[in-house]
Amino acid sequence: ELKKRLGEINKAKALAAVAGTSKSAGASDAKKRERMLLKTAKGTRDYGPAENSLREHIEDVVKECFKRFGGSCIDTPVFERKDILTGKYGEDSKLIFDLKDQGGEELSLRYDHTVPLARFLAMGISNFPGGKLWQVGKVYRRDNPVVSKGRMREFSQADFDIAGVYDSMIPDAEILSLLADILTRLRIGEFTIKLNHRKILDGIFAVCGVPEEKTRSISSAVDKLDKMPWVEVKKEMTEEKGLDAEIADKIGEYVKHKGGCELLDTLKADTTFMANKMAAEGVKEMGILFSYLEAYNVLPHISFDLSLARGLDYYTGIIYEAIVEASAPPGFVANPAVPPESTSVPAAEPPKPKKAKKKAVEGEEEEADESSVGVGSIAAGGRYDNLVGMFTAAAQAEGKKAPQMPCVGVSIGMDRIFALLWPKWSEVERTKGTHVFVMAAGDGLIVERMKLVRELRSQGIKTDFLLKNKPKLPAQFSASEKDEVPFAIILGENEIKEGFIVVKEQVWDITEHGTKEKRKDEGTGEKIKRDELVDWLVAKGVMSM
């Protein structure tokens, strides 16, 4: 009996051991399945220190221009009540990020700065007589992103708007002058500001016979002529949006035109077109605008383009967008001048071999193919005279007249500009603004280094040192060279007793290959009196670096 009982106990132990092993393996498998995927959300990215140095530069240039043109800064929430945003973006409304119910409020992330600005103005319209307002911040769109081209789901925009009643086209010209100034100062290279007028475009649609209820959807199709050939745009108009092919061909005859002031003469000579009251008003206003743009010396950058439509519903007057060579998809030749009856696609360069798409994580959408996408416009905007009034009317008691506030503005795509400037910037620009690197020869002199660092920083001089007690001199030079610090200050025990320090200037040259290389210098540096160091550095221009 005892043997039998002992056998049962051993058998139970064996079964328990097997079960434990199985449970351990199962836990291990579960642990493997639960491993965290370390990646940013689709359409977002991190920026390291070097990249942020360029982002700061872009933002500094933009903000300086905003202030120089007389703007005042505002800030609005990154999310809004959903009803504030809906119905303002036409077909792009599907790109709005909705948030889950937050305590009874339906919320959405802001799509741009324009609608939040209009809500801001509507809320305080009785206390704001008008003026220039600007805002820089992130906006969100559930678009198909191409991060390398600056086309993101989370991205930074800088907006400048003029709100209030002013004389015709003066604020509009001021905005275009500001845009040209910013793009010139950012040194993005050759750029073009495509310009059109919503009244002219709506006049074209009316004259061609577009039903009023289809105006905005056809406008959205026309707006794609900068990235799609005419035959595809016409196909969208007729097959997807139900427009008569004959009407589409008439539209094609108009939207093929682009040029300068002379295009106004072409439109004025079209008696059928000028018979439309809205079109005639648009032509008159464009004539006034061109005279002001000439005074601002902006005309060399302007292309009056009848195919520019801007798909957002709130525009009522002039519309514009800034483009560069990289804006269009690679290999695509934007050519709206193809005769509407032609079925051939405009000639384009042979497309480059497509890169293999990154395999999407299970349950996620695939990334867009970057080889078939351009940067797009780098800035855009227009006049929106009714948007603020739309909010005041919705909030007003029935039968009471709602106050209006016409506006015109521009949005600058900071991340798209970053994508254009980064390749060159990363090769030739400093990524840190440190002026001085304090070093020690010999025994480390950590306390003396700290005292000098504190003194220089208190005078506004950007100063750093190696956070070690007794670092070797080559390691300290290596740290300063990594950040391309222009002045190396070397402390030595004997020099400190004598009241001197040694300063060595460090210079980097750009080679013929476009890379940076430190200039060789066999000298030991210059001896400077300790109490004259700050003045010496200021005289060397350290504060303006």
Strand order of the largest sheet: 1-4-5-11-10-9-6-8-7
What are the low-pLDDT stretches, counting only 5+ consecutive residues below 50?
335-352
Q: Give the rounded overall mean pLDDT.
A: 86
Query: How much β-strand is present in the residues?
Result: 15-25%
- The tally of helices reads 18
Distance between the termini: 95 Å
| Structure classification | alpha+beta
Output the radius of gyration.
Answer: 31 Å
What proportion of the residues is helical, as a percent range?
A: 25-40%
Number of strands: 18
The biggest sheet, with number of strands, parallel, antiparallel or mixed sense and barrel status, is: 9 strands, mixed
Query: Any idea what the shape is?
Result: globular
